[in-house]
Amino acid sequence: MPEYRKEGADYWSKQGIDNEIPVAVYQDYVAAEEYRRVLENFVLQDRLVLNLAAGYPPQATNHRTFSAPTEIELCLKEKNARLTAVDIAEDPLKKRNKEDEEVVKANVFRLPFANESIDGGCVLINFLNAHYKSDGKTFFLTPQEREELLREIFRVLKKDTFLIISNFGHFVFYEGTKKHTPVTESEISTFETIKRIADKLGFSRIEEISLDQQREETATKTAVENLPPQYRDIVKSGKMDLKCDNAWAAILVK
Predict the structure, then answer these.
(1) Largest CA distance in the chain
(2) What range defines the domain where residue 132 resides?
(3) Which of 1, 35, 140, 186 is most buried, taking the most CB atoms under 10 A from its CB?
């Protein structure tokens, strides 16, 4: 069976970026004020924080806009953390490097860092929804890969450091109460499933982070406008609705 850590890494490091919808459709639903609250008691001056599967920096473009709007990077820079972008794809790292960011080319399932060497923390923005395409099919992270990923992050974190996760969810068509989605339950990374893994690994504190309702509404409107015309017209006519399912965020402290 295909594995995200292998085939997925190959997909996104090569053709995947040109095959996907603009990342600008996606939005982080956590406001800067909430990120600041969550980070308030962490001393991060000159400490290393890994931005895992970082992708393109906001507003970086090639022939389309790539921007995963999130203010976590801004909040970490406000605390003078040494933020380092980690990604398997070279092009987004080149663009981040041009903006004087520290970058590391690596597979997030095999981080090139020693045990308990990260003295600040890690952020994982919208990666638990990650997918890749092969032979006309779409593959998501498996439950085993989710645990493997969190285990690898746990390995490199020092005690009392954090992992912040923001999961943007999936946009789903609703016809009344009937849900139309190609994503199965086993492919969805919920807060509950991640919490069970985090408890098993030994994270000492696991808390949900509040989402901003206005951001959710804005993201849905943006998603509707980015739909192909035939689907956009159906949603605007009221025959179907487009909603975001399973958006959540959390902080895990080692």
Answers:
(1) 55
(2) 4-253
(3) 35
How confident is the model over 156-202, as pLDDT tens digits? 999 999 999 998 876 666 666 666 666 666 677 889 999 999 999 99
Per-residue pLDDT reduced to its tens digit, 87-135: 988 888 888 888 888 999 999 999 999 999 999 999 999 888 776 555 6
Has this prediction a pTM greater than 0.85? no
Distance between CA 15 and CA 247 in Å, rounded? 27
Element (H, E) at 170: strand 170-175
Supply 252's token pair.
Answer: 């895990």
CB 148 within 8 A of CB 3: no
Count of domains forming the chain: 1
Amino acid identity of residue 194, one-letter, is I
User: In sequence order, what are the residues at sequence separation of 6 or more whose Cβ sits closer than 8 angstroms to the Cβ of residue 49?
Assistant: 76, 81, 82, 83, 84, 118, 120, 121, 122, 123
Tell me if 96 sits within 8 A of 85, measured CB to CB. Answer: yes
57 secondary structure, DSSP code: P
Closest CA to 29 of 232, 244, 195: 244
Q: How far apart are CA 114 and CA 98, in angstroms?
A: 27
**CATH number of the domain that 8 lies in?**
3.40.50.150
Phi, psi of 46 (to 5 degrees): 60, 20
Please report how the helices 213-225 and 229-237 are oriented relative to each other, as an axis angle in degrees rounded to 10. 130
- Distance, in Å, from the CA atom of 195 to the CA atom of 130, rounded to the nearest integer, reads 18
